[in-house]
Design goal:
74% of the residues lie in helices and 4% in strands. It has helices spanning 11-24, 36-43, 47-59, 77-100, 104-122, 126-143, 147-168, 171-189, 193-215; strands at residues 63-66, 69-72. It is mainly α. Helix 1 (11-24) packs across helix 3, helix 4 packs across helix 6 (126-143) and helix 6 (126-143) runs antiparallel to helix 7 (147-168). The N and C termini lie far apart (55 Å). The radius of gyration is 18 Å and the shape is globular. The longest helix is centred in the middle third of the chain and has 24 residues, at 77-100.
Length: 217
């Protein structure tokens, strides 16, 4: 039986991932100007590649362009509220479906990702925790058959990742975040869709309040 061939990453793909991550974790700070020559030297790629990456990040609203050039976008409070509101709507629906159609395999996969999230946060590896958070939610959406909703979520993932890194870097969310996810997984495992949705909305509401607070600092 033939196996799916993984698409090899291009130079642009690799450079884009590094630039996106640098913005998400604050190495490139909000409002910071993006100097193409410096980025070329740091990444070891051509200016053409860097410009393509910057244009792509503009489409993700991680970068803004003005007469003075490109700079890292600043997240406004209203934008943050809208992102979390959209997350609450889409994720709670995915959680509801997963609870109603629960399988042992689904719970095992979610639990494995959750263990990785918790362990990496415990050791301070927030970047790796973010990767498992992405996989956790991707599995929720795919299992729920909400592929279009996941496509919409992926368009926001750069900004969601910025907010997640910011909140999960705090001691409070590094503990409370995984605990909330555990509550969601436990309710899914029990097939309790109502409680799973409630736990999901509580988790996002708390993250929103923390994100808004930290963004003002």
């Amino acid at each position: 039986m033939l196996e799916k061939v993984e698409k090899p990453k291009t130079l642009k793909d690799t450079a884009l991932e590094q630039l996106r991550l640098a913005i998400m974790i604050g190495q490139l700070a909000p409002g910071q100007r993006l100097v193409e020559r410096t980025i070329c030297e740091q990444l070891g790629v051509s200016r053409t590649v860097v410009r393509e990456c910057i244009r792509h990040l503009e489409s993700e609203h991680l970068v803004t362009f003005s007469a003075g050039g490109s700079s890292v976008a600043v997240l406004e409070s209203d934008e943050i509220r809208q992102i979390y509101h959209l997350r609450a709507m889409l994720e709670s629906e995915a959680v509801r479906y997963c609870a109603e159609q629960v399988t042992h395999e689904l719970v095992e996969i979610l639990q494995n990702h959750l263990v990785q999230i918790r362990d990496n946060l415990h050791t301070g590896n927030v970047v790796e925790a973010l990767a498992h958070s992405y996989s956790f939610y991707e599995h929720l959406f795919v299992t729920a058959g909400m592929t279009v909703a996941w496509e919409l979520t992926e368009r926001l993932n750069g900004r969601i990742g910025r907010l997640r890194f910011m909140t999960l870097s705090t001691q409070e969310r590094a503990v409370k975040g995984p605990n909330n996810l555990q509550e969601i997984v436990d309710n899914i495992a029990q097939g309790d869709s109502k409680s799973a949705v409630k736990a999901c909305r509580k988790h996002i509401d708390e993250a929103c309040h923390m994100g808004l607070y930290l963004n003002k600092q």
